[in-house]
């Protein structure tokens, strides 16, 4: 349980005359309470008042797991045969009285649950949003968080090694994905941080393509985008390798992306802005004539979820600070021809950054 962060949120609530906050996203709940869970369609919630003890609300079958995770305040459970909102309303009113202002995690709360709150508390003001507060709270990582992120990054490096070794002529994208995830599970990694991407040839020109039955042929590039969840924290990295000798076009595209990635990563330090980092990489790709084929932002934050605040993108004047973690992942995607992306997530130090993954980025030609 992260009691300091709960207290930090309570201080913000007092300053903004908020009576109660409803934390609804499982990753936010895990960050504050220490309890990790995927509730599926069931209700999982953390209610935090401004001046009293919070309580965690879970399906009954997870109450003991929540307590074992280190949440020392009350854990309230409900059976599948019960209406969870009747219990929630009863707990809130008996513990705290009817809230005048109730802050929501608006980027995570679905409409039907918001409507139940409106029905339960018709006179309550729901205008306050704690989304940005929670995002900024997670922005600066501690040394302990960094160590866990480095461990997660190491497992991504292991995954690359497994995947590269499995490449052979006529192997399918799905077969490589299966081999990576099978071997990681054998080593104790229970879950990937997102669906593993292994894309061959022109299929890699779709930045978020879907691995399928496509088989690897000689002189094709293979794009690997993957990460794991380790002790509640995510890794995310991308490498593109060549199976047999690459073509001149493939080399040109690859070297352009590599130059952009390395230049942006080398520029990371406190004081630079998110949009400046994006521009460094984008200018290199533009100058090489591939501007129209770099179709996404340069990067995103990473931590307990794989896509966190901040966004490293044009128009974001956020100033980079020591302790932030985010990805640097330029790409060039020429439809029906070739796709290349290279990505490291980095931790910002007082004068630069530390990459969370160590797999070499120079073009790896696999024979």
Question: How would you characterize this protein structure?
Answer:
With 367 residues, this protein is of the alpha+beta class. Helices cover 35% and strands 21% of the residues. The chain is built from 10 helices and 19 strands. The chain has helices spanning 3-15, 26-33, 63-68, 84-96, 111-120, 131-137, 143-166, 173-186, 248-267, 274-287, and strands spanning 20-23, 45-49, 55-59, 74-78, 102-104, 191-192, 197-200, 220-226, 228-230, 233-234, 237-243, 299-301, 308-312, 325-328, 331-334, 338-341, 344-348, 353-355, 365-366. The strands form 6 sheets. The chain has a 5-stranded mixed β-sheet. It has a 4-stranded mixed β-sheet with strand order 7-8-11-19. It has a 3-stranded antiparallel β-sheet with strand order 6-9-10. A hairpin with a 5-residue loop joins strand 2 and strand 3. Helix 9 runs antiparallel to helix 10 (274-287). It is elongated and about 70 Å long.
């Amino acid at each position: 349980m992260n009691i300091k962060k709960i207290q930090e949120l309570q201080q913000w609530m007092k300053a903004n005359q908020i009576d109660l906050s409803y934390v609804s996203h499982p990753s936010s709940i895990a960050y504050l309470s220490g309890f990790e869970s995927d509730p599926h369609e069931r209700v999982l919630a953390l209610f935090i008042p401004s001046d009293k003890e919070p309580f965690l609300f879970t399906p009954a079958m997870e109450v003991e797991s929540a307590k074992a995770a280190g949440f020392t305040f009350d854990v309230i459970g409900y059976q599948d045969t019960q209406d969870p909102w009747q219990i929630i309303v009863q707990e809130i009113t008996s513990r705290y009285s009817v809230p005048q202002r109730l802050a929501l995690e608006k980027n995570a709360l679905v409409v039907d649950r918001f409507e139940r709150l409106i029905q339960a508390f018709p006179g309550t003001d729901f205008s306050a949003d704690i989304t940005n507060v929670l995002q900024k709270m997670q922005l600066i990582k501690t040394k302990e968080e960094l160590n866990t992120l480095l461990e997660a990054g190491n497992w991504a490096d292991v995954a690359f090694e497994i995947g590269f070794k499995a490449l052979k002529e006529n192997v399918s994208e799905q077969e490589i994905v299966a081999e990576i995830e099978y071997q990681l599970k054998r080593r104790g990694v229970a879950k990937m941080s997102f669906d593993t991407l292994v894309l061959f040839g022109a299929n890699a020109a779709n930045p978020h393509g879907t691995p399928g039955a496509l088989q690897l042929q000689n002189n094709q590039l293979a794009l690997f985008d993957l990460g794991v969840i380790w002790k509640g924290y995510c890794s995310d990295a991308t490498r593109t390798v060549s199976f047999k000798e690459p073509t001149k076009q493939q080399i040109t595209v690859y070297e352009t992306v590599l130059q952009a990635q390395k230049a942006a990563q080398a520029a990371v330090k406190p004081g630079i802005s998110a949009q400046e980092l994006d521009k460094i990489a984008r200018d290199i790709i533009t100058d090489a004539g591939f501007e129209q084929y770099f179709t996404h932002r340069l990067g995103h934050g990473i931590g307990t979820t794989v896509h966190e605040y901040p966004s490293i993108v044009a128009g974001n004047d956020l100033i980079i600070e020591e302790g932030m973690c985010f990805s640097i992942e330029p790409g060039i995607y020429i439809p029906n021809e070739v796709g290349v992306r290279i990505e490291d997530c980095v931790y910002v130090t007082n004068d630069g950054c530390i990459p969370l993954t160590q797999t070499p980025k120079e073009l790896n030609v696999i024979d």
